[in-house]
Amino acid sequence: MKILVVGSGGREHALCWAFKQSEKTEKIFCANGNAGIAEIAECVNIKPDEIAELADFAETSQIDLTFVGGETSLALGIVDEFEKRGLKIIGASRQAAQLESSKSFAKDFMAKHNIPTAKYKTANSAEEAKEILQRGLFGDENAPVVVKADGLAAGKGVVVAQNRAEAIEAVSGLENLVGKKATEKIVLEEYLTGKEVSLLMFADGKNFALMPPARDHKRIGENDTGANTGGMGVITDTNLLNDEQQNEIIKKIIKPTLNGTKQEGFPFCGILFLGLMMTATGAKVLEYNVRFGDPETQAILVRLETDLIEICQAMLNQKLDNTIIKWKKGSSVCVVLASRGYPYKVAIGDSINGLNDVAAHKQVVVFHAGTARNEIDEFITASGRVLGVTTAAPNLNGAINRAYNAVSQISFNGMQFRRDIGN
Ligand SMILES: Nc1ncnc2c1ncn2[C@@H]1O[C@H](COP(=O)(O)OP(=O)(O)O)[C@@H](O)[C@H]1O
Ligand SMILES: [Mg+2]
User: Fold this and answer.
1) Which domains does the chain have, with CATH numbers?
2) What is the predicted pLDDT for the residue at 118?
3) Are 286 and 120 spatial neighbours (Cβ–Cβ below 8 Å)?
4) Atom of ligand 1 at shortest range from CA of 156
5) Element housing 257 (H / E)
6) Distance 160 CA to ligand 2 centre (A)
7) Which residues partner with 272 through β-bridges?
8) CB-based contacts of 113: which residues, under 8 Å, 6+ apart?
């Protein structure tokens, strides 16, 4: 089969890598890819928001299966366009993608379908948001409140404010931070406490199949300090959720969500990602994403034993219930190596050393997030997040040790990473 993966980050490298393991794969294309992806796929210079061009490419290149990495393409309706043209594609429809592309849509959906989540109020302007905060809807002036831009904001649209004054300041700054369109509405939320878990699943409109639970590490600094990033590392580990918790999540969150999407006329097909807070009163949904996470994908796919193409075919035929999906037992870790300056203004163009040494370990995979080649064909840094050093092992400590051993072999000027992923 000819496969097209849409996107250009570490997540898409991991998807190409997983497709590459399949005997059914004849050739992989990636739009628009990166230098690491180019090792295993043909990179095509079409951007994820160029929906008609992507569909034209899939038609003329006779692509058998397209897999969409990120939310931008989904929110723009890539799946609807491909399906209209009879092209096979895995991803959420434009309507279903609203669960991610509009936080107020997602909150109203959860309220309507009785899905546990933080209390909230949607404001239609910054002024209204400030009024709501002044009225004290979420406690007195010392209570923390969460301020969220409604629209897609690439992880920059949420501020956890420690008190009312900070929340008001956050509301004032939000438009500058993420733009006018994403802040046409602002969602204010009750502050929840607990441990966060990401639970992803394949869904085919009728059935779902869970992936191993994951935990990301969003802050740049060790012990979860400093600025928020796209993600500095992830672990997957069965112990992140016990059976009782998982069963409760299935009953109170997953089934009502998937049934809700059917009732609303957009049965969910694709990858559904639950951002959960495990509170003292049970699991609550922080957010939905309608696609794989980055770097969750890297850590999840290194544990996948079943052929990804078979899973995709089962999804397209609504036969996930007849498909046994096998995962390597134990844990996995992905440690992100980032450029100097990340997550602010980053320095790029530095050559990367040690990749060949790590390639000698069969049990470690280095996914490229932002790399390019220089004139003498070396890999160089090309964006904030550069590499994701990823490995699976029978237990978490084994995975952590193996990942950091590999990290110690890689270097580039100003390389940043957290030493505490998984701790
Ligand atoms: N209601 C809440 N209470 C406490 N923390 C929250 C709440 N909502 C979000 N957060 C924190 O903010 C982070 C980002 O929020 P999220 O809704 O996942 O937005 P996004 O991933 O789109 O930036 C979460 O991972 C969590 O740490
Ligand atoms: Mg999130």
Assistant:
1) 2-93 (3.40.50.20), 125-184 (3.30.1490), 195-322 (3.30.470.20), 331-407 (3.90.600.10)
2) 98
3) no
4) 23
5) helix 255-263
6) 12
7) 201
8) 256, 257, 259, 260, 263
pLDDT in tens, 85-97: 999 999 999 999 9
- Kindly report, residue by residue over 190-199, the tens digit of the pLDDT: 999 999 999 9
Residues with CB under 5 A from ligand 2 (ion): 275
Q: Give the number of the atom of ligand 1 that is nearest the alpha carbon of residue 189.
A: 1
Where does residue 16 rank: exposed (0-12), middle (13-18), buried (19+ CB within 10 A)?
A: buried
Q: Is 196 in the pocket of ligand 1 (CB under 6 A)?
A: yes
State residue 156's pLDDT score: 86
Beta bridge partners of 327: 304
Cα–Cα distance for residue pair 254/201, rounded to 1 Å: 9
Please report the pLDDT score of residue 410 as a whole number.
Answer: 98
176 burial via Cβ count (<10 Å: 0-12, 13-18, 19+): exposed
Taking the CA atoms of residue 33, residue 37, residue 39 and residue 41 in that order, the dihedral angle to the nearest 10 degrees is -70
Please tell me the predicted confidence (pLDDT) of residue 155.
Answer: 83
Residues in the chain, overall count? 423
Q: For position 361, what pLDDT does the model report? A: 86
392-407 as b/e: b if 16+ CB within 10 A: bbeebebbbebbbebb
- CA-nearest of 120, 101, 123 to 184 is 123
Average pLDDT along the chain, 423 residues, taken 10 residues at a time = 98 98 98 98 98 98 98 98 98 98 98 98 96 91 96 91 96 93 96 97 98 97 94 96 97 98 98 98 98 98 98 98 97 98 95 95 95 97 98 98 98 98 95
Unique residue bearing structure tokens 């694709």? 270
Kindly tell me the burial class for residue 129, based on how many C-beta atoms sit within 10 Å of its own C-beta (0-12, 13-18, 19 or more). Answer: buried
User: What's the rounded Cα separation, in Å, for the pair 187 and 158?
Assistant: 9
Pocket of ligand 1 contains residue 191 by CB under 6 Å: yes
CB of 157 closer than 6 A to ligand 1?
yes
